[in-house]
Amino acid sequence: MHHSIEIEGLSFAYPDGQEALQDVSLVIQPGEKVALVGPNGAGKSTLILHLNGILSGNGRVRVCGLEVEKENFGRVRAMVGLVFQSPDDQLFSPRVFDDVAYGPLYQGLPQQTVKERVAESLAAVAMDDYAQRVSHHLSMGEKKRIAIATVLSMKPEVLVLDEPTAGLDPRARRSLINLLHELPLTMLASTHDMLLVKELFPRMVVLDQGQVVADGPTDDLMDDKPLLEAHGLERPY
């Protein structure tokens, strides 16, 4: 069985010379739910953008046994559902239906299959009645759910989320946590929300200055006060 995510010796520098990742290695098994935490500028977003080829550094990245390289981008992007921090980066169609249908249509699936995928994906995020709504008129919490549905319609094996609870009010945040808890997918989330991490992710990876500085059971790392303080993190309780 393949690892869901396998990163070996990944390094990446931006054109201005800033080193964003330095020799990062990480393995995530099927079914694991892993949180990626660290201060601003630690390299978290840079790392997750390597998982479907938006960025490409030195080292090796595999998802579901596939090398993340140009000739595999189509298959990789179907397997790895990336949900951006701002849903407005993901929702661009006039109707919710069109946003959720975009991926399956792009894959060339038959019209009936696309309709079924849209219905299934909206049901999975409890937004069944929203297909004909205008995406830009929705609340932030609703948009986040629709953004997740646009990814679920591709039937990914891995769900990757960038700051999933950012900008949500308490009720929408709770609703999203419940949704993520129920989704039976391998999950990697970059987040500053340590309460979310404690509640939802049994494993935590701490990234700082482009390097993995800790990787282990969330409860153990949360109890390591010097570790958290050294990397700009706080216990949520």
Any overview of this molecule?
- Helix 3 packs across helix 4, helix 3 runs parallel beside helix 5 and helix 5 packs parallel to helix 6.
- The chain contains nine helices and ten strands.
- Helix 6 links the parallel strand 7 and strand 8.
- By secondary structure, it is an alpha/beta fold.
- The termini are far apart.
Averaged pLDDT, please? 92
How many helical elements?
9
Order of helices and strands: EEEHEEHEHHHEHEHEEHH
Largest sheet: 6 strands, mixed
- Please estimate the helix content: 25-40%
Please indicate the percent range of residues in DSSP E strands (runs of 2 or more). 15-25%
Q: What is the rounded distance between the termini? A: 38 Å
Strand order of the largest sheet: 6-7-8-3-9-10
Summary, kept brief:
The chain is of the alpha/beta class and 237 residues long. Helix content is 34%, strand content 25%.
Question: What labels describe this entry?
Answer:
single chain; 237 residues; alpha/beta; six-stranded mixed beta sheet; four-stranded antiparallel beta sheet; 9 helices; 10 strands; 34% helix
Write the SSE topology.
Blueprint: E1 5-13, E2 19-28, E3 33-37, H1 44-48, E4 58-63, E5 66-67, H2 73-79, E6 80-83, H3 96-106, H4 111-124, H5 140-152, E7 158-162, H6 170-182, E8 186-190, H7 194-200, E9 203-208, E10 211-217, H8 218-222, H9 225-230
Parallel strand pairs: 3-8, 3-9, 6-7, 7-8
Antiparallel strand pairs: 1-2, 1-4, 4-5, 9-10
